[in-house]
Amino acid sequence: IVVDATFLFTDVEQQILEESDPAVPLMVYISWQNVHAPLDPPPESYFQEDEISLLGMIDDPYRRTFASMTIILDNAMKKIVGDAKAHGFYDDAILVVASDNGGCPYSGGYNYPLRGAKQYLFEGGIRVNAFVHSPNLIPDHARGRHYEGMVHVSDWLPTLLYGVADVSPDALDRALDGVDHWKHMVSPELFASADKYPRQEI
Fold first, then answer.
1. Closest Cα partner for 157 from 94, 201, 103, 202?
2. Is there a contact between 148 and 190 (Cβ–Cβ < 8 Å)?
3. In the chain, what's the furthest Cα-to-Cα distance?
4. What's the CA gap between 151 and 147, in Å, rounded?
5. What is the pLDDT of residues 140-177, one digit of tens each?
6. What is the pTM of this model?
7. 105 — phi, psi (to 5°)?
């Protein structure tokens, strides 16, 4: 089942951290499938009592299953953060959490007030929740801020490579479709006008 894949991916991530040196730069990419069709409800034995109580408050069966799969995802993320702390990676880490598309209403997703859903070019299909977290690499004044710029999935590579790791764009043998957002994210007061953001279209 999908949830078992979550446990497998998380165990592999733990092994990678255990076998890696925190003094050496490391990137770990995990593409969890929890909140994705087909809906596959985890067994009740996977949950704590308070989680079962919360799920019991959801009437719609699709939304309840979707929520149960999300709880498993949240717990996996908690484990990864704990592993990063335990192995000395957390303080200088950057955690990016983002979806690849809007939710599917027929599979428990909910995009209101945005119009549309997955497979549509309306905002409900392409505008998703995301966050960037770092204990030491995001200045205090930028924490808890909402970034107003448009970010495409192709932008994460140059943002992390050029903006954070300070790698020269000349280091790659070809131009990228993505753009670097890092300075805009960590110094949002410098880019109050929409035309100042690096991406103007999706």
1. 94
2. no
3. 54
4. 9
5. 988 888 888 899 999 999 999 999 998 998 888 888 89
6. 0.86
7. -55, -35
Reduced to 3 states (helix: H, G, I; strand: E, B; else coil), residue 52 is helix
**How many whole angstroms separate alpha carbon 153 and alpha carbon 195?**
20
Distance CA 8, CA 4 (A): 6
Judge residue 177's burial from the number of C-beta atoms within 10 Å of its C-beta, 0-12 exposed, 13-18 middle, 19 or more buried.
exposed
DSSP three-state, residue 157: helix
**Residue burial 138-166, b: 16+ Cβ < 10 Å; e: rest:** beeebeeeebebbbeeebbebbbbbbbee
pLDDT one-digit tens code per residue, 105-114: 888 888 999 9
Calpha distance 13→91 (Å, rounded): 17
Q: How many CA atoms lie within 13 A of 195 on its CB side?
A: 0
150/193 Cα distance (integer angstroms): 13
DSSP 21: -
